Amino acid sequence: MAAQAPSLTSETDLREFQRHFKKISKESAVFFAGTLATTAAGYFFKIYLARAMGAEQLGIYALGMTIVSFAGVLAAVGLPQTASRFVAAYCAKGEVTKLARFFWFGVVALCVTNSVVGLAVLALKGSLAVGLYHTPVLSAMMHFFVAIMFLGALTTFFGQCLAGYKDVARRTIITNFIGTPLTMVLSIALIAAGLGLTGYLTAQVCSASVVLILLARAIWQQSHRPSYLSLGGLPMVEREVGAFSAILFANQGLEVLCGQVDRVLLGIFLSARELGIYSVATAFVAFVPTVLQSINQIFAPTIAELHTRNETALLQRLYQVLTKWILALTLPLALVVIVFARPLMAIFGHDFTLGWPVLVFATLGQLINCGVG
Fold it and tell me: What is the dihedral of CA 270, 273, 274, 279, to 10 degrees?
């Protein structure tokens, strides 16, 4: 029997629930609108990439991204995802100095760890490309993937800081309405110029650099500037931050292992072409949990804030109500994807039709994901 949502015992509790629900709905709506717009554009962009580059080049790209995924988790050491929690918690307590120390520690630590891991990847690029994946052309492009890893760590950290400030709307404008279209425009221009996969990777690096600058500017506008400039010492990390980052590091390592091991095995035992087909199907499935992702952007820092204030009943009530809405809004899209899986894959080209079973089973998995919030 399903657990009943906890009752809110006073008018003040009810007003707090309504305030948080309104805030989550508003910020999630902006993120959802941005995601919906970029999803629609991204769908046609994926079709263009599939037809312009072919399954083999997309497969090579997927192989490079598996390396980035594993190396990125090692280099990030769980720091980027801690930002939304601790920025929200420090803001709730008014601990400005701790907030500034956390920010600068995160920036410095990520620059150092990503530089070290990036150099290690470049030193091993021959072994990874030829010895592991039997794809020599991947070695010549490894510097692009290292740059994507480095920029991705910092943009994720800055984006999570904005989420901690509960300014998801501004982050959405920067990443969805500026970064994504810029990537598409640059990619189309460079691919049309005959650069192929090299052009696509160059476009990603350029757009990620622009997004990083805009996110840093947005955080500077949100922050208490005098405290960010005067720390009174080195930006040391709090013990609680280190413990939480270690837990996230282990969790993300497991997530990446589960999420990328399929691509690694396909890259080792099958061809880049077959991996390209698989990658298109799984990339399409990523659009299914859009509602879940939209709500989680603002609900995550809300969890940190309510947990800090020990408002457990309000937190549980929000979780149950939001989970029901997420599942109800996701179900229609998931059913359409499952029923029309074959024709949807055929749009990317005849070679990609073989990936329709992947689309069906992965969509069922995302439904379970949305059902548990």
Answer: 120
